[in-house]
Amino acid sequence: MALRQEQQLKQVQKLSPLQMQVIKLVELNSVELEDRIKQEVEDNPALETVDHAETDANDEYDFQNNGNDKEEDSLSQEDILLGDYFSEDDVPDYHTGYSSSGESRQKEFIYSDEKTLNEFLLEQINLHQLNERQKIIAEYIIGNLDENGYLQRDLTAISNDLLLQHHIDASSLEMEDILYEIQDLDPAGIGARDLQECLLLQLQRKTPSPEVKIAEEILTNHFEEFSRKHYEKIMRKLNLSEDELRDAINEIISLNPKPGSSWSNSIEIAMSNITPDFIVESDNEGVIMYLNNQNIPDLKINREFFEMVQGYNQNKESMSTQDKQTMLFMKQKMDSAKWFIDAVKQRQNTLQRTMEAIVAIQHDFFLTGDETKLKPMILKDVAERTGFDISTISRVSNSKYVQTNMGVYPLKFFFSEALQNKAGKNVSSHEVKYILKKSIENEDPSKPLTDDQLTRILNQKGYKIARRTVAKYREQLNIPVARLRKKI
Description:
The chain is an alpha+beta fold and 488 residues long. The chain has 4 domains: 18-103 and 277-385, no CATH class; 110-185; 188-255, no CATH class; 418-488, Arc Repressor Mutant, subunit A (Orthogonal Bundle), CATH 1.10.10.60. It contains 22 helices and 8 strands. The chain has helices at 17-26, 30-43, 77-82, 117-125, 132-143, 155-166, 172-183, 195-203, 210-221, 223-227, 231-238, 242-253, 261-272, 303-314, 321-361, 363-368, 379-386, 390-397, 429-441, 451-460, 467-476, 482-485, and strands at residues 47-50, 278-283, 286-291, 298-301, 401-404, 407-410, 418-420, 426-428. The strands form 3 sheets. It has a 4-stranded mixed sheet with strand order 3-2-5-6. The chain is extended and about 100 Å long. It starts with 16 loop residues before the first helix and ends with a helix.
């Protein structure tokens, strides 16, 4: 086949470096953005942060800042554009985010440096009369407890690890004896291998009484019926009255199913502490919304780095090959810094406009805090108001949170599908879920409402909804089925 040369004209869509930066940054929440900025400043010598103490905390973000007040007589056209990226006395600041006028409203959380569960248990086990070998075994078993205080690993597997790592050949009986020593430690229930054993360990430490004795009998011989709430079967098998069963169940539910949780809670709270990306405040005068950029630093081009590039640029003709390579490297870093600053700027603009659209649609909710005031809203509704693509709105709403007078909500909370009532009016699924939740809260605990009954209640209130939809909403609210909600 002969070779031939031909021309083709076709349209190809390509993203610029700036567009790719914006896409990546829009997906980040405020905490992730802060980390991303720190990483970029470390990697790029042309980029640096502006100390907030040096800037006016009340300056608003100016999207129209084109740096027209800069001195132009000694700078090239490219240098004039670079003036937007400096923050000096003679150059207007290039802010990368809204200054947070709500800075004083942010709470500072201080976490105490307490002992871990392992440290607490090791201190106790050292007070027991154990020899060196037994202490090593005990420490190894304690090290295998999970965050809730349970021993999920089989003792045989732990014994094999001890043989490989410490050359200690411990029999099953010896491992059991050491485990019993650990189960005598505080908190009660520690070292249990399952929920049943955990609850029984706690009951054994209680003052003997008729209800404690019945509770032990239930957990020992009728645990499956108890977990499935088959109370009639338990009453029949143990010949108990309702009052006797109720007292025994109260003893059981007063126990802690996760004895190690009191140590992990502080860590979990610290890890799950949410930093809101938006703050919405409302009063009688209306609703105010702003971005929470308290910890987001302003960015600028490093002036010394820029002057070095300018110096190289003025001596192009006399440059050596190595100098040209250095010049190319520095220019790439300068361009990268400019793209990053613009990307952060566009991210803030995108988030601001998106949240403004959400507040406009859900204005009644932000004003009153009444979930029944939430309107049906999908990504397309916000995209049409902002002019952004649906994929952009999806990225903005992902992993972002908003702080309101009623609490902190994930941004996705405000998006919901529409349902029709008998009047033909569209209502939000949040409204239906709210009524569903209230109906379950007000039900008779001894005769909880089934999904069919909940469906009839909603239909009577004017909502066209199927039983399977009710079941779906109930699961989304983390509410168990009627059988598991039953109480004596």
